Amino acid sequence: MAALGNRGTVTEASGFNPEEDAQKLYSAMKGTGTNEATIIEILAHRTIAQRLKIKEAFKQSVGKELFDCLKSELTGNFEKVAVGLMMPAPVYDAYELRNAIKGAGTEEACLIDILASRSNAEMKEIVATYKKENGKSLEDDVCGDTSGMFQRVLVSLLTAGRDESTKVDEAQAVQDAKDIYEAGEAHWGTDEVKFLTVLCVRNRNHLLRVFQEYQKISGRDIEDSIKREMSGCLEDVFLAIVKCLKNKPAFFAERLYKSMKGLGTTDSVLIRIMVARAEIDMLDIKAEFLKIYGKTLHSFIKGDTSGDYRKILLELCGGEK
């Protein structure tokens, strides 16, 4: 499995020895008490490909699943991070989506964060993995748990049918901008299907051009119009799509900021982004965070979390810069 991205804070450990790591983890968990420092040291400084090799070595030498041992030894948010780090990206995404859907109430933020930000290839892997892990289709589960236009946007994203070319059709871009304007700002009541057709199907370069045109026609940024025209989950998902198209690391930086500012921390969001992006674009997310909020992501995590949970997140965050 190749490295996930080249802008991560987590990179391949040199002189990697899976058997040695497996033994260290086993020693850290056997007997009474757990040596959390060793677990953090290993899990936060190995790539997912390396962690999977450790998992194999652990099973061979100990005769138990590392995943199960971590679950039984650790608790709370620290456990959630450690367990998340043991899953390949599509498996983790599928696992998070399943947790967001099952149980009482749906964590719409999770559906939005994942489905609005993944590429077609990533989406196809998530859909296939979900089916394999749960024996049910992700689309069926999403449809069983959401409704209306919000559901239709999620289903469209799940088809992984976005044009991923870089071609900009000038005439079409002008027409798309006009269509969205007429479906929203210039219209009594909003025709959301028009937004869906343009925002969920066209390629990124084309849409960036559409947003420029839209600004010209309406005198407003597309995000402002979405906020004026829509509400609730539908507003959230369309905003997430637009933000991810404009600047994905900035989208995640904002999600992290909102998960920590004010009273209480939305740990589910914080954990999901730190685990999922550590090996992909965490360096860019940190840079955007500093640029937008004037404070480091590191300082926010430090001030908002505690204990081993804080320690492992700070390692994934990778240094104060």
From TrEMBL:
A cellular-component GO term for this protein: nucleus
InterPro entries: Annexin, Annexin_repeat, Annexin_repeat_CS, Annexin_sf, ANX4
GO terms, molecular function: calcium ion binding; calcium-dependent phospholipid binding; phosphatidylserine binding
Pfam hit, one: Annexin
Domain of life of the organism encoding this protein: Eukaryota
Compartments, record wording: Zymogen granule membrane
Chief localization: membrane
Keywords tagged on the record: Acetylation, Annexin, Calcium, Calcium/phospholipid-binding, Cytoplasmic vesicle, Membrane, Phosphoprotein, Repeat
Topology class, membrane: Peripheral membrane protein
PANTHER family in the cross-refs: ANNEXIN, ANNEXIN A4
Domain notes from UniProt: A pair of annexin repeats may form one binding site for calcium and phospholipid.
Name the UniProt record assigns to this protein: Annexin
